[in-house]
Amino acid sequence: MRVAAYERYGPPEVVAVSERPEPVPGEGQVRVRVHAAVVGSSDSAARSGTPWFARLAFGLRAPKRHVLGSEFAGVVDAVGPGVTRFAVGDRAFGATGIDLGAHAEHVLVAESGAVVRLPDEVGMADAAAICDGALTALPFLRDAGHVRPGDRVLVNGASGSVGAAAVQLAKHLGAEVTAVCGPTHVELIGRLGADRVIDYTREDFTQARGEYDVIFDAVGKSTFRRCRRALLAGGSFLTTVPSWAIMFQQLTSKLGSRRAVIMFTGLRKDAEKLPDLEELGTLAAAGGLRPPIERVLPLEQIAAGHRIVDCGHKGGSVVVTMAPAEHRAGPSRPAASGRMTEPAS
User: How do residues 202-234 score in pLDDT, each as one tens digit?
Assistant: First the structure.
């Protein structure tokens, strides 16, 4: 099978397509023929070995795992002994977490892992993109922000995969949503349902005073210190990007009226991700979740996908495809379309 592999840390070009033996599912394992997988910020960090603490997870001097990719969608083509949740031919989507390996034509996952059946109404690229953004945004908003109907939520970095999902999920939870993005993505985020869209080149949202119950910084471009006055008493600042400052503030802010919260959603147990995947798949099938996709590329162009992620200004997810029909189609979706147009496979 073809995989996108790397042997050393470095720029996007260190990732290249090579051949590996097809994996054979063991006891309790499911083999998925991958149709679509995401190139995300965690893949960029793992590939480059930056920031420095990324190497604590991926290898101090050289990568421990040579095939990146966590979020995937595809079709089950083999099952190991004892498997009862899946059968050959089932459409499936999920995330491998720290095991990675999804940038390949086949991936092995435990039957008990973070993988569920994919509704027929949801395309493969969309399903992978849902795992990329919404599987992170949902626990941030629901479990850390405790978003309730009527809350006022601001999403900073709303055009990224996590931010775009957060806009839609906050609306789904009943919040009034303000979204912050660059000028090229204002129209896109408006289509996703934001009540108000702020172009950060024209307005600084941190100058607001006592306006929001939750500020979700989905891209780590702001700080609790800058945002604190924009929060209402009892409000929460959430961020996806770890730093020594946010770690300290998470501890000390418990003594004040406004909280700082960092979560490591990728490290959640599979048992915690499973119900979220089911919920997100159902929501997407009903048209309530539309993940914008910046670009769809064949596996051979994965280095280009990494370059897009590295630039830091993508509108939604970057998806690579493996299925032969999708190879012929090439980049079949317009940038940041947010439409769910792929045929069921």
Answer: 999 999 999 999 999 998 889 999 999 999 999
Nearest to 50 by CA among 260, 41, 142, 131: 41
- The C-alpha atoms of residue 310 and residue 306 are separated, in whole angstroms, by 6
203 Cβ contact list (under 8 Å, min separation 6): none
pLDDT of residue 342: 42
Cis ω before 242 (30° cut-off from 0): no
CATH number of 121's domain: 3.90.180.10
Whether residues 242 and 252 share a domain: the answer is yes
Chain-wide mean pLDDT for the chain?
Answer: 91
| CA pseudo-torsion sign 302, 308, 311, 315 | negative
Residue range 84-109, pLDDT digits in tens: 999 999 999 999 998 999 999 999 99
Residues 44 and 71 both lie in one domain? yes
**Global confidence as pTM:** 0.88
Q: Of the candidates 212, 240, 265, which is a domain's last residue?
A: 265
Kindly state whether residues 218 and 281 are assigned to the same domain: no
CATH assignment of the domain containing 140? 3.40.50.720
β-bridge pairing 29-39 and 317-321: antiparallel
In a domain, 254, yes or no: yes
Q: How far apart are CA 23 and CA 13, in angstroms?
A: 26
The parent domain of residue 49 ranges over 2-130+267-329
User: What gap in Å lies between CA 158 and CA 315, rounded to an integer?
Assistant: 9
Alpha helices in the chain (DSSP H): 41-48, 54-58, 124-139, 161-172, 186-191, 224-227, 244-252, 270-285, 302-311, 324-329
Model pLDDT for residues 9-29, shown as the tens digit of each residue: 999 999 999 999 999 999 999
Q: Tens digit of pLDDT for each residue in 171-199?
A: 999 999 999 999 999 999 999 999 999 99
